[in-house]
Design a protein that fits this description.
It holds the Pfam family Terminase_3. This is PBSX family phage terminase large subunit. InterPro entries: P-loop_NTPase, Phage_terminase_lsu, Terminase_L_N, Viral_DNA_packaging_terminase. There is one protein chain. The protein is built from 16 helices and 17 strands. By secondary structure, the protein is an alpha/beta fold. The protein folds into 3 domains: about 220 residues, P-loop containing nucleotide triphosphate hydrolases (Rossmann fold); about 180 residues, Nucleotidyltransferase, domain 5; about 30 residues. It has an 8-stranded mixed β-sheet with strand order 3-4-5-2-6-7-1-8. The termini are far apart.
Amino acid sequence: MEINLPDMVGRGYGSFWRSKKRYRVLKGGRASKKSRTVALWYIYNIMKHPQANAVVVRNTFNTNKDSTYAVLKWAARRLEVFHLWKFTESPLEAKYLPTGQKILFRGFDDPLKITSITVDVGVLCWAWVEEAFEIEKEEEFRTFDESIRGEMPDGLWKQVTLSYNPWIDSHWTKSRFFDNTDPDADTYTTTYKCNEWLDDADRRLIEDLERTNPARYKVVGLGEYGLPGGTYFEEFSESVHVIQPFVIPDDWQRFRVLDYGLDMLAAYWIAVDMQGFAYVYKEVYESDHIISAAAKRLKEMTLPSERIKLTYAPPDLWNRRQDTGKSAAEIFQNNDVTLIKAGNERIQGWLNLKEWLAPYETFDEQTGEAKKTARIKFFSNCKNIIRTLPAVLKDEKDPNDVATEPHELTHGPDAIRYFCGMRTLPSKPSGAPRHPTKEEQVQQHIDKLDKQARSKRKRKGEYAG
């Protein structure tokens, strides 16, 4: 196999290419050619090692086709060996024709298929977890990691490669691989400077961020962990918006709202008090539910005593599906869940949600002490909306819109957006007590002391009225 690797792959990834440790962890900024380099490695090394097979995994299986599958096809063409490979979409796989070795594709949304992988020729020894940031729980990764097992023939080794943009610094990949030294892992941080084929215009676009948005440049330009600037809901504060659960009065209205896809069912139960203030008190945040199963899950989580008034859902659930001729809304209805079509104006919807989140000052009725509150609050058990709402980003092209990536962050906020767009924003309570001035506080203190003195004299018979 005559391939000039330096010309095909370029610079910046030499140690990554040579690593044989159990884990290769590759985080990088935008345009750092990390996915393309990984794809080139797999095509080249499957051909080099006749018994090796690989599996490529993303959080949601159906996202592979337009990402990992497409880039592996590109890599085969880049290496001028495309004629030796057969790429099929049903099943989704890549087969090296001379030997029958395969690259398989899976998703974390199908746990059974991801932990029971077999191959016809050779052994499964390598795995590529693309966009590992989308994998929420380290436990899910560990379960998958355990499926890469068994003895290896001479010349082969077990290896799991993780590649991703580092986005939020609270992700488990940081504590697992970068905050602590793992002798079984090689870790890499790559940037646009590794990509010698990046054109000048794209290079300037990234480098301009160092001046205009240093926080975003840290992630996009330098490949470091952290929120990349431009978080959309700057109004959100856990001290204001997150509260401990309480018993909801029976006379409050209750609603459900959902964002549905096979990749995620994000559903929320919301109580509205007599003044119109909203309390998000329960959530379902689960993947891989077909429509009937999603309806069943909503019913399982709803008590008969809750008396749900309306269930809001996005308009696309009313589109008819080619396979059944029915819309998702009809299938929900057939499973005893009636949906109400919510508005789907993105920008206005996000602005509505920002208004609901906007903190304002009020005063404690008992003490007169100033405190911050908001028109919508979240029970502390709604962990995913509390996690994702402050993490979604502004869209680069339209800062009035929310970025659609990372996609995993958008499901919960989308659902809450539908609710806020359908409900009238409550006014600040008009009867809230006014915070006393310093002079009034002094006078109140004097009056209090005087009242105590008169009461004391009265008990001693010194005060007659």
